[in-house]
Amino acid sequence: MRHVRSSIVTVAIVSAAVSAVISVSVTRTAGQASRPARTADGKPNFSGIWQAANEANWDLQAHDARPGAVMQAGVYPYEYARVPAAPVLALGAAGGVPGSVGVVQGDGQIPYTPDAAKIKQENGEHWIDRDPELKCYLPGIPRAMYMPYPFEIVQSTNKIQMAYEFTSTARTIHLDKVDPPPDDTYMGHSVARWDGDTLVVDVSHFNGKNWFDRAGNFHSDALHLVERFTPITPDAINYEVTIEDPKTFTRPWKIAMPLYRRLEPNAQLLEYRCIEFVEEFMYGNLRKQQLVQRWEGDTIVVDITRKVPQGDKLHDWYRR
Amino acid sequence: MSRRLLALIGAAVVMVIMALVALPRLRPGPAADGKGPAPGTAWGEPDLQGIWTADGEIPLQRPAKYADREFFTDEERAELDKQRAEAIGREADESRRTRGSEQDVGGAYNAAIFTTHKRMGRRTSMVVDPPNGRIPPLTPEAQKKRAAMREYQLALLQSTDLCKNKLPGCEGGTYGPPSPKRNEAPPYYVTVGAAGGGGAGGGAINRANNPEDRGLGERCMAAVLPDFGGNTGFYLQVVQSPGRVAIFYDTGQGQGWQRVIPVTDAPHLPSNVRQWWGDSRGRWDGKTLVVDVTNFSPKSYFQGAQENLHLVERWTRLDANTIEYAVTIEDPTTWTGPWTVKQAFSRQSDEANRIYKEPRCHEGNYGMPALLAGARAQDRAFAEKRGPDPAKECTAGCGGFALGFADTGEDANPLSR
Description:
heterodimer; B: 417 residues
């Protein structure tokens, strides 16, 4: 038995890590096969439930797999030899981060201004304290498009509604004339037009409070996106975003990825009402009787008790 | 000073609500120009799309004085509008409160900010069945749960001035030393903050030991199904595709949510999968979208019903400008019979787009940590003999804001006088 110091974020990381493991069935059914490739007005038919199947929510850029979503110095002084830190240590292999070839186009670099690059670096180092995803805040665009949760497109003629499972939020894409929003937004103001078979969405009026990923990539309220949705097959969309934010980046840059249709015959959006899930994470230190073991000032210390090794027969045999 | 500040805050809130109510009127949409027939979608289904709201103020249940009447006369509506405008514009009556007392603080809002500024509708109740316009009585089982919750509420109030002075909020309770129940979990999951309706979860508790002690509204999770708009009103945006009806509920002052109704004959989710807003299955019955909703979470709450709530909604586009919404509500463990509510929704301008799709109550919920931190500071002050026993203080369920409103007579909503 061994006590491991951890922090209050463990629960959020468990749920995030578990959700990151997504499964997309490839079984087609008669129901899906009959879905028309085009809508009644002749546009590509994007209606349905979709999900990205990549690691972009961990980090838009190419990265190695690593043993922990939160890391600390190991026995070597090298960055590449760091080991999992307390918040995820008890999760073993479920607490790591999958590698990725990245979704940033061109040279794979994000063109931060020097000041913004420093902030990005700090964001990454303080991920569990700063990432709005962990607090269940409205995820913003484009992040909502590639989080490890399904979303649904309800495509009508003048409006396209995108419903996101994460915190039951949404955006409306306006194909018709619409007034600008009265205030800046987390989810952006989306107006669109068709360019042949490509849906081109212009997104603006951001409040600058969102991140792109768990690596600390961020933007300001000057963010302006041009999204392009182009059908690859009836069940896959090429999703490409041009990202512009002169307060944060020295030039526009692009990300691109496929979005995949969820083909399970009974696929439907469920609730992920995480406001409730994060109450302990956000307010646990203010309970009259702490559910965690103790806290030092406003830092919460969670003691995790686990058996090492975990009831594995072979290990038990060697331990006799 | 605090009174003045509260008045300012109150005025600001009123202005926001008035603005919300007034905005759609400033920019009537094309649909407001004249009535046309109910349209259909390009793919041949009935078209429920657009931004909608309930215009007229109609009480959920019929007030006793209109017992045998389904509709107000035009004169009654004009008189009620006049009385309401007066109540909204009047300063709260100071004579009934001692300034700075718990009742003053607890009732610092007068009824005005939670009295809708909409004009009276024609119906005397949203409940159309039973014909008396009233929600059927609670079952003995639900009454028992409600009584257990009330007993717990009173135990937490029993050593406060509220019970010492036999004020209305302590009705049914007696004054005594702090109850050991203060250290126990509530008998049922706490849901609504105010006095509460029937059943288990209703009612504020005089404690802030945990976020879960507070009502769902304070936790930014107030949105429920069915939703009739409440005092602050709501906007709905409907977008359809073949086989799907998406409805965004802009409700509860930033506590909105997105609903997607599959139009399918597929069965409901497995019964172990429970959701705050249940599981919806739609089908078209002629012009009407009929939606069956089950699988509610035991943490959800609607007028006393929880996981056994079953809704059958009927959404019908009557003409270009009007949707009729009817919902039959049943739960044999909560009510002795089913009941039906009807509302009319009117079309708002798509271009003006006066719907708030940013449910960011949670993002700005500084109230929750502040409230909990305040309670912990009180605990510490008491432990160090610097402050009063928190068990003797009333902070929730005390009357006023937390238990109906202190305002009566001419200050009250005329429908509840």
